Amino acid sequence: MSRTALTLKVFALIVLNDVGDTIANLFMKKGLAETGIASVGLGNLAEFVVRNSSSPLLWLGILIYALNFFVWIVILYKVDLSIAMPVGSTSYIFVPIVAAVFLHERVSLLRWVAIFLIILGIHFVSQSKKGATDAA
Amino acid sequence: MPHDGMMRLVFLVLLSETLAAAGQVLMKRGANMAGAHNLRRIGAHIPFLRDVLSKPSLWLGFCAMTVSLVVWLIALAQGDLSLVFSLGSMQYILILILSRLFLNEEIDMMKVAGTLLVAFGIALMTIS
Fold first, then answer.
1. What is the per-residue pLDDT across B17-26, written as a single tens digit (0 to 9) for each?
2. Which domain holds residue B57?
3. pTM exceeding the 0.90 threshold for the entire prediction
4. CA-CA to A26 of 20 to 30 Å: which in A33, A99, B73, B124?
5. Which residues of A touch B74 (CB under 8 A)?
6. Which of residues 5-24 of A touch B (CB under 8 A)?
7. What is the per-residue pLDDT across A46-58, written as a single tens digit (0 to 9) for each?
8. Do A118 and B74 touch (CB under 8 A)?
9. Cα B47 to Cα B34: distance, rounded to the nearest angstrom
10. Measured between CA atoms, how close is B15 to chain A, in angstroms?
11. Which of B107, B108, B125 minimises the CB distance to A114?
């Protein structure tokens, strides 16, 4: 039977990882925006760190990032990095959509075209027969 | 956004991406060094994590990713979220090359075509 290196289970793990990444970024962005420091340089880096360290949303984002780290290790154990990496770009599909809905950022037509190309690319990589680290 | 502010944002994101690419390769190296584990069994995950977390390569990769995250946070604080996200396309091509060179992964046409499409799609987001 012909099968691809990327199993449905690993694909589901990668999507879970990307959703976590998207939520973490959204929380971190919201947390950072609340502290009201618009520009960061060497001059106010200490103030930036101190002010942001009290942001619960930022910490929640970092916590999700940390949990995602373990999911990513399991993914890396199962498939090639050259598969996990491009397939792991589903964030680029979710983020503009989430940013449009929750942060009211605009999604242009060109961006929708880009989203389509990324989906097509992920489909191509998912068809590769090379890359299962594990025989399972 | 003023021009030099934009240049600084691009620099920060590229620095973060390069560190992340190196970190990914090192982490994958660490994961490859782990022994055989049947992860279909729920109980197998703890010994697996213990095994994989004992690999220095994984931690080196983790450190690179952590520095990358700090740089990323600094970039996020001053940029439009979707713009900051869309500058990452070069990382995909970089990782394709690095995984051939340092991880001996087999690269076929599907991987090349798919990765180029993904990278092009992300680059397109940068200008949209």
1. 889 899 999 9
2. 3-127
3. no
4. B124
5. 40, 48
6. none
7. 777 777 777 888 8
8. no
9. 10
10. 15
11. B125
Burial A89-126 (b: 16+ CB within 10 A, else e): bbbbbbbbebbeeeeebebeeebeebbebbbebbebbb
- Smallest CA–CA distance, residue B76 to chain A, in Å, is 7
CB of B24 less than 8 A from some CB of A: yes
Our count of domains for chain B comes to: 1
Burial category of B3 from C-beta neighbours within 10 Å (exposed 0-12, middle 13-18, buried 19 and up): exposed
Q: What pLDDT is stored for residue A86 in this prediction?
A: 92
Q: Please name which of A93, A79, A94, A91 lies closest in space to residue A125, comparing C-alpha atoms.
A: A79
Cβ <8 Å between B118 and A69: no
Candidates B17, B22, B25; CA nearest to B119 is: B17
Interface test with B, best of A30, A70, A85 (most B CBs within 10 A): A85
- Note the pLDDT of residue A28: 85
Interface contact B25, partner A, CB < 8 A: yes
State pLDDT tens for residues A56-107.
888 999 899 889 989 999 999 999 999 999 999 888 887 787 778 887 888 8
Structure tokens at B75: 């970039």
ipTM: 0.81
The pLDDT score that the predictor gives to residue A133 is 56
User: Secondary structure of B37-101 in the HEC alphabet?
Assistant: CCCCCHHHHHHHHHHHCCCHHHHHHHHHHHHHHHHHHHHHHHCCHHHHHHCCHHHHHHHHHHHHH
CB atoms A80 and B105 under 8 Å: yes
Q: Kindly state the DSSP code that residue B1 receives in the 8-state scheme.
A: -
